[in-house]
């Protein structure tokens, strides 16, 4: 009588379920820990100005113009750089509230026409409380320069 060896019939297999579980946990971890901060994406160099800092309302509408002249309303980018596209984007983000304060943040290297286009679009939509963001001037360098002239 011949005894048969059944071990040869067993084929090795790789169980993918634990691997899928680990990959899913990593994806969930990275999605949760990723920060979505508009300030880290756009690097603006604000123009310098003297004056008092005003309190920015937490519900103010933020319109950003980068150095290339592209527009961002809150976290949404306007598709084109013309007035109509910008007006459409502002209207979608702001809704019907035209009394809402607007903070216009334009890069110091932005072409002047881009800032005028943003102000024009806001004015056409009926926004009247518009503030332009600036960076404070460096005051530490001024006294040192004045002392050197004496």
Report on this model:
- With 150 residues, the chain is an alpha/beta fold.
- The protein has a domain at 38-136: Nucleotidyltransferase, domain 5 (2-Layer Sandwich).
- It is 37% helix and 15% strand.
- It has five helices and seven strands.
- The chain has helices at 17-33, 38-41, 83-94, 112-125, 141-149, and strands at residues 48-49, 61-65, 71-73, 76-77, 102-106, 130-132, 135-136.
- Strands 4-3-2-5-6 form a five-stranded mixed beta sheet, with helices on one face. The protein has a two-stranded parallel sheet with strand order 1-7.
- The longest helix has 17 residues, at 17-33.
- Major sheet summary line: 5 strands, mixed
CATH topology annotation of the domain at 38-136: Nucleotidyltransferase, domain 5
By CATH, the architecture of the domain at 38-136 is named 2-Layer Sandwich
Read across the widest sheet, the strand sequence of neighbours is: 4-3-2-5-6
Q: Specify the oligomeric state.
A: single chain
SSE order? HHEEEEHEHEEH
What is the count of DSSP helices, taking H or I runs of 4+ residues? 5
Report the average pLDDT across residues: 78
Through-space gap between termini: 116 Å
Secondary-structure content class: alpha/beta
Radius of gyration: 28 Å
Give the low-confidence spans: none
In which range does the helix fraction lie? 25-40%
Q: Kindly provide the name of the CATH class of the domain at 38-136.
A: Alpha Beta
List how many beta strands DSSP finds.
Answer: 7
Work out the strand percent: 5-15%
Shape: elongated
């Amino acid at each position: 009588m011949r005894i048969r060896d059944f071990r040869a019939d067993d084929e090795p297999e790789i169980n993918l379920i634990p691997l899928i579980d680990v990959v899913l946990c990593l994806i969930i971890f990275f999605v949760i820990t990723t920060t979505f901060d508009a300030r880290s994406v756009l690097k603006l160099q604000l123009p310098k100005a003297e004056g008092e800092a005003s309190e920015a309302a937490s519900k103010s509408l933020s319109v950003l113009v980068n150095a290339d002249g592209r527009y961002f309303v809150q976290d949404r980018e306007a598709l084109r750089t013309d007035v109509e596209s910008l007006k459409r984007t502002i209207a979608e983000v702001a809704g019907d509230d035209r009394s809402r304060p607007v903070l216009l943040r334009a890069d110091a290297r932005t072409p002047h026409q881009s800032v005028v286009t943003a102000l024009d679009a806001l004015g056409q939509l009926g926004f009247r409380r518009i503030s332009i963001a600036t960076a404070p001037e460096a005051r530490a360098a001024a006294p040192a320069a004045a002392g050197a002239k004496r």
